[in-house]
Amino acid sequence: MSNASAVSTAPTFVSDERKERLDKKAAAKDAVRLLAKYGAPYISYFALAFLCLVGAGSLALIYPLFVGTLFGSIFSPDQPSALSPILNVVSDLLGRLFPNYRLSPLDPVLALLTAILVVQAVLSFGRTYLLNYVGEKVVADVRRDLYRHLLSLDLTFFANRRTGELTSRIASDVTAIQNSITLSLAEAMRQVIVFAGGAAFLFWIDWRLACLLLGLIPALVASFAFFGRSIRRRSTRVQDALAEATAILEETIAGIRTVQSFAREPYEVSRYESRIARSLREALARALARGLFNAAIVFVLFGGFVGLLWYSGNQVLAGKLTAEQLIQFLFYAAWVGGALGTLAEYYGEFNQTIGASRRVVELFETKPAIRDAPDAAAPPAQGLVEIVEARFTYPGRTEPALDGVTITARPGEVIALVGPSGAGKSTLISLIPRFYDLTGGAIRVDGRDTRAWELAALRGNIGIVPQETTLFSGTVFDNIAYGKLDATQDEVERVARAAHAHDFILAFPQGYQTVVGERGVKLSGGQRQRIAIARALLKDPRILILDEATSSLDSESERYVQEALDVLMEGRTTFVIAHRLSTVQRATRIVALAQGRIVEQGTHAELLARDGIYKKLYKLQFRDVPEWLLQEAGERDGGDSLPNAARAATG
After folding, report:
1. 217-254 and 265-317 are packed helices; what angle lies between their axes, rounded to 10 degrees?
2. 422 pLDDT exceeds 70?
3. What's the CA gap between 497 and 534, in Å, rounded?
């Protein structure tokens, strides 16, 4: 039994290991491809920064030679140094510049070292500034393109993602990429130069000692392989947990009124803390792996350094190495070991960058399901809407939301959509501007299938006033002018008057420059709706969609909003969804939906005369009204007098 178990589990283990290696390789390629794509426009800056980096790193490699020369001048003044020819030139130059000054043997060394330090400082400044310039530019470009790409994605994508998760990817993940460019990459490249140059000097001084030191590299590579996978995996988990925490934060702040009204602050704190605790656990596990990694590197390096010190000291005692060579070799050995240790640390950070890059690339690789066709056009619109056998099923569901709906709406007509919740009303109006694409049938605007329209042109001819108005955190003027970005003050005031919003706007201390607060929190529901109506008027669409635009308002606000809507609907093709049936009585045609199908349609009076779903819905809203009064209201004036009559009849 145990043998069979072992045989059956081994292939899975191997497959998982291979899959992880492939995922890592793919993620690394994605990271390199992302950096290469966005770094290409700034290659000249990067090349100049690289030259500064090479120059500064190369000059740094000379320091051990100077240190060795200084010690050689002290302990063996008569023995020639490797720098003797250069120091003689510097000594002659100093003698000409300062003829009355008696030069010390150390003065040329210090003078040359000072000059090198000045040049190195200038090169270090150039490297730091240029790499930060490239990093900031690349990150700004990535954020801009990522934001533009997100706005191009369809509603299905956003329905399956949380705002906080997307915010985290644009903010923290891109910041991780920035750090890798401006800090980690530059420092890693510098350490590569130090390692390569230091190793070359080691071989120049004594090739046997150099081979002894570099024999430690296999142990270091093994440490990289052993700890690198864990660090990368933990880094990805940390980013995922932080994205979840950010999503909860976004949701809580957006719904703070609901949270406080239900006194759910402790619950939300608990939810947030659980995600933070998870990210903390993963971060601590990552810190443990990195700590063990660094400890292993330090142990290997310094253990090797101790052995090297013992061996090289014996070489000096045997007369095979000079004191100057020993000092230089030990310094270069320390530099090479330090470079390896630093590279090991940045290897861990690179794994973290790979995880962040992978999450950003995943967003870029997500293609919008709704896009322009190759032959899409943008003709002038008149407003004729033809919905023919429309069928639609939401992704992941089996039951259709719409099943063969056919409606024709001509310019100037008002089509009211009624029916119980889940009947398909909101789905139908979402299909007209192509927020989703049909799974069957067709929707045509002015005889052209909506999929043959350019998206911007199609949606530019459609105005939507939703139940929950979305206002942005700018001024009243900015929110109205969102319907036409180049609108003048006179145009904004004109539509505000038509929407019955001008008077209450002027009552604000700053008038049209009053800041509405995030999502219009400083305005009442009726005020927000009238600003939304003014915005739609300014857009001047040929097709208008009113999605329960008055359902959440009190009677007085509803009256003002309804008057504004009457102005807005004039001459346009209008689709109205309303649960308050008193608001759709004057519609050209009322379409009753149930389970995604049209069950009846007609005028208000015609539908009241039938014993169908519309009459049942109507009676539910006016359940205390006698049957004769319902019939009389429908026959007399289309039901306009029913609300007053109902109040009179019910006392």
Report:
1. 160
2. yes
3. 8
How far out from the chain centre does Cα 42 lie?
23
Four-point Cα dihedral 304, 305, 309, 312, nearest 10? 70
Domains of the chain by start residue, with CATH: 36-232+294-365 (1.20.1560.10), 383-461+542-602 (3.40.50.300), 469-540 (3.40.50.300), 604-651 (no CATH)
pTM for this structure? 0.65
Bridge partners (DSSP) listed for residue 18: none
| Top mean-pLDDT range of 90-94, 134-138, 148-152, 381-385 | 381-385
Other beta carbons within 10 angstroms of residue 108's beta carbon come to 24
What pLDDT is recorded for position 113?
76
pLDDT the model gives residue 393: 92
Pair 55, 117: CB distance under 8 Å: no
Given a contact cutoff of 8 angstroms between Cβ atoms, the answer to whether 613 and 419 are in contact is yes
Q: How confident is the model at residue 648 (pLDDT cuts 50, 70, 90)?
A: very low
- Strands (E) in 337-401, as ranges, are 385-392
Q: How many Å separate Cα 395 from the centre of its chain?
A: 24
CA 509 to chain centre: 37
pLDDT digits (tens, 9 = 90+) for 501-513: 888 889 888 899 9
CA distance 549 to 416: 12
With H, G, I as helix, E, B as strand and everything else as coil, classify residue 370.
coil
Query: Which segments within 329-457 are labelled E, that is strand?
Result: 385-392, 402-409, 414-418, 440-445, 448-449
Q: How far is Cα 49 from Cα 135, in angstroms, rounded to an integer? A: 12
Q: Which two tokens stand for residue 271?
A: 């939810």
| Tokens found for residue 238 | 């940390």
pLDDT in tens, 323-375: 677 777 777 777 777 777 677 667 666 766 776 777 788 888 888 888 888 88
Continuous H helices in 404-473: 425-431, 455-460
Helix (H, G, I), strand (E, B) or coil at 543: strand
Encode burial over 410-424: b for 16+ CB neighbours within 10 A, e otherwise.
ebebbbbbbbeeebb
Task: State the Cα–Cα distance between residues 53 and 458, nearest whole angstrom.
Answer: 53
Q: Which two tokens stand for residue 489?
A: 């003050």
* Token reading at 212: 């002894």
What are the structure tokens assigned to 261, written together? 């009204």
Distance CA 516, CA 511 (A): 11
Note the Cα 22 to chain centre separation in Å: 25
Closest CA to 495 of 455, 454, 461, 463: 463
Encode 264-331 in three state secondary structure: CHHHHHHHHHHHHHHHHHHHHHHHHHHHHHHHHHHHHHHHHHHHHHHHHHHHHHCCCCCHHHHHHHHH
394-402: Cβ within 8 A, 24+ apart? 394/427, 394/436, 395/156, 400/439, 400/596, 401/427, 401/596, 402/427, 402/428, 402/431, 402/596, 402/597
Q: φ, ψ for residue 390 (rounded to 5)?
A: -70, 130
